[in-house]
Write a structure and sequence with these properties.
- This protein is mostly helical and 63 residues long.
- It contains 3 helices and no strands.
- The N and C termini lie far apart (100 Å).
Length: 63
């Protein structure tokens, strides 16, 4: 019965501890966000890739 009691206490402690890898959001911080802080649009020039250069075939001398 002592082993069962220790197991129950360990299970309770593990479920109630404050986890460091918790990725939950704070709702108060979400409400305080302003419109201009949400998205920033940056104007950039379009990037155009150069067409690949085709290799010219080398002709062998037929002599």
């Amino acid at each position: 019965s002592v082993v069962l009691l220790v197991a129950i206490i360990a299970a309770i402690v593990l479920t109630l501890r404050d986890r460091q890898d918790n990725k939950s959001m704070n709702p108060a911080e979400q409400v305080l966000v302003k419109k201009q802080d949400r998205l920033r649009i940056v104007k950039m020039d379009a990037v155009v890739e150069a067409p690949p250069v085709e290799a010219t075939p080398v002709e062998k001398d037929k002599s």
